[in-house]
Design a protein that fits this description.
The chain has 290 residues and is an all-alpha fold. It has a single domain, classed as UbiA prenyltransferase (Tetracycline Repressor, domain 2, Orthogonal Bundle). 72% of the residues lie in helices and 0% in strands. It has twelve helices and no strands. Helix 2 packs antiparallel against helix 12, helix 3 packs antiparallel against helix 5 and helix 8 packs antiparallel against helix 11.
Length: 290
Amino acid sequence: MNLTLALRLGRISNLPTVWSNVLVGALLAGGGLADVRLPLLMLALSLFYVGGMFLNDAFDREFDARHRPERPIPSGQVSAQQVFVIGFGLLALGLAGVAVASRAADGLPAWRALASGAALAAAIVYYNAHHKGNPLSPLVMGLCRVLVVLTAAFSVSVALPTAVVLAAIALLCHLIGLTYVAKQEHLGRVGSLWPLGFLALPGVYGFALAMHSPVVWAWLALYEAVVIFALGLLRRRARGDVPRAVVMLIAGMSVLDGIVLAGAGQILPAALAVGAFVLTLALQRWVAGT
């Protein structure tokens, strides 16, 4: 397998959104930008993401053969067995990375972080194996990102601050709306629109944060612009609009992360989250995000 194919299978263009998720979990739980555990957590949870993307192609190989024959497995560029082995291997490496990053003073990894990481691996596998035709799959996908935040938080703290819980709920709502849209991508249209109402809830939370911390308005305005742009594409439904809406909403996760970080007074990390948004959009021009 060559590097270009591996990057495509791993959808690496979306990795900056994982990094901003890690910032939310670790910093709102009491960590700092200078914490040596932070880059380790970003690497470990990136391995979870890339492994999950590999498994997505492996489990979806029959569907892709009918609807997306250009994908690597149905087009014969790589075998399903090889993709399965790499996918599960990356999940194992990711969990090992969490164990290293979460070690306490006694040298032992934090059991809460390990449990959360194991739950993340299980959720990734379950989603990939059962998301087709499953009405609850948007919730499962949302839980995967929530567990990224929780794993990062438990790696630096034994307890979850309220700010982490609320940020995770906001992210869950965004992912439910996003995943619903992504499930319709191969159709080039969106059916019932009511699940998209979940995308409004993070904005409500952002509004509440902005009322107490006016600096949040800048991030909230950007987030709402992203969501409105994506919904405009869904309403127009021209050829290619649904995939464009999907990748915009994927990148928008980092803007949402910026909202909650700014609301906690973490201005520099909030700015880095916007940088992750811009980087994701740029990378999506190089490697497809879906």
